[in-house]
Amino acid sequence: MKNTRILNSLALLFVCMLMSTIAWAQNEQKASPPATATGKVGEADITVNYSSPAVKGRQIWGDLVPYGEVWRAGANEATTVTVDEDVMVEGKELPAGTYSLYTIPGEDEWTVIFNKTAKQWGTQYDEGQDALRVTTKPRQAATMNERLAYDVTDQGLVLRWENLEVPVTITAQK
User: Fold this and answer.
1) Other beta carbons within 10 Å of 33
2) What is the CA radius of gyration of the chain?
3) May I ask which residue range the UniProt record assigns to the signal sequence (predicted)?
4) How far apart are CA 143 and CA 161, in angstroms?
5) Residues 94, 174: contact at Cβ < 8 Å?
6) Neighbour order of strands in the sheet with 79-83
7) CA dist., res. 113 & res. 100, Å (int)
8) What is the pLDDT along the chain (174 residues), one digit of tens a residue?
9) How many CA atoms lie within 13 A of 37 on its CB side?
């Protein structure tokens, strides 16, 4: 009888510890939580799926994200862009589909890359799979953005992080 009481007490203690660990883990914020931006350009639906890292007091452009090198445009898995209709990106054709999104940041100009291999870890970039490369000009953001964010507007998409915005013009294909 005494052994049964001890075993029941130990089992109850174990269950309580397990439940508190699970509850704590669910409340813990991921360093780069997943995020989604959606919108329409003309009749085309556009969805951007990405992981959103934070600045956390770091110098982003030219340091954490070096100039002149391919960057996965987010964290963790590759950022993806899905367009459900053919569109024009910075005046160049992009067929409907899902693409991984990479960039090559520069101080005055960025290369934005739509890669045909959508399901991949962000650092597994293969230039041979590029569907489209375009260039765009970054600009100073109106406000500081602690977390990387994408917005889909009727003009295209905009990457915002730290004190920078990178607009990518998207229009309906004619």
Assistant:
1) 14
2) 22
3) 1-25
4) 10
5) no
6) 34-41, 44-51, 79-83, 97-104, 110-115, 130-136
7) 8
8) 666 666 555 555 454 454 544 544 444 567 899 999 999 999 999 999 999 999 999 999 999 999 999 999 999 999 999 999 999 999 999 999 999 999 999 999 999 999 999 988 878 899 999 999 999 999 999 999 999 999 999 999 999 999 999 999 999 886
9) 21
Among 114, 123, 99, 109, CA closest to 164: 109
What is the domain range of residue 25? 1-30
For the chain, the first-to-last Cα distance in angstroms comes to 82
Distance CA 33, CA 110 (A): 25
Instruction: Check the CA dihedral 102-104-107-110 and report its sign.
Output: negative
| Domain co-membership, 16 together with 55 | no
Residue 61 corresponds to which amino acid?
W
Tokens representing 8?
């029941």
Q: How many structural domains are present in the chain? A: 2
Q: How far apart are CA 49 and CA 36, in angstroms?
A: 5
| Residues paired with 102 in a beta bridge | 113
Is the pTM of the predicted complex or chain greater than 0.90?
Answer: no
Residue closest to 166 by CA, chosen among 96, 90, 110, 100: 110
Looking at the fold, whether 16 and 95 belong to one and the same domain comes out as: no
User: Three-state SS for 8?
Assistant: helix
